[in-house]
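Example 3.
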Amino acid sequence: MEKEGLQRSVEFFKHHNINIKTLVTDRHVQIKKWVRENMEDTTHAFDVWHVAKGMKKKLFALSKEKDCSDVSPWIKSMVNHMYWTAASSANLNEDLILAKWQSISNHIINIHDGHSTLFPSCQHDDLEGRERHKKWLKPGSKVYEKLQDIVNSRQMKKDIPMLSSGQQTSELEGFHSVVNHFAPKMIGFSFHGMLSR
Ligand SMILES: [Zn+2]
């Protein structure tokens, strides 16, 4: 359904001679492939909320493992860091975006300098209040090793540089939820029923 919808929308724009410079979608595999093969002149970017949702699920599962609950207070920070990485990286090269993202695995063990050549130091000011008193993870601990696997996974390396730095899909999600209120997906309506609703 997603792919069909995208194809029709792209046709519509083409028909009206509107060029699509950037396209922001979730990270649906079929969509990614179709855009790569059919929209050569378009930059394809991922909606941050969708990528963050996937990561949150993994971190939450990790927090339920034995001796790994220390990751819980960091889940929100990591989502924020993902949004920051995307929002502050318009037109930057992929390696730098990735270096920014990966600096979180140092920050989380209370190391804020010497991350990498491309992104040497955290850009936050001196930490105050809650941020300073949050419990740092311990290098070498099971939870820290597993967290690093998530931060540096192959999937992340592919997804992070593709995050949209500006437009997101939240307005569209909002629109769909209004439509869904009047025409719930669980009920099958006739074409006319659907149109009226
Ligand atoms: Zn830091």
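The chain has two domains: 1-46, 48-166. The chain has a mean pLDDT of 92.
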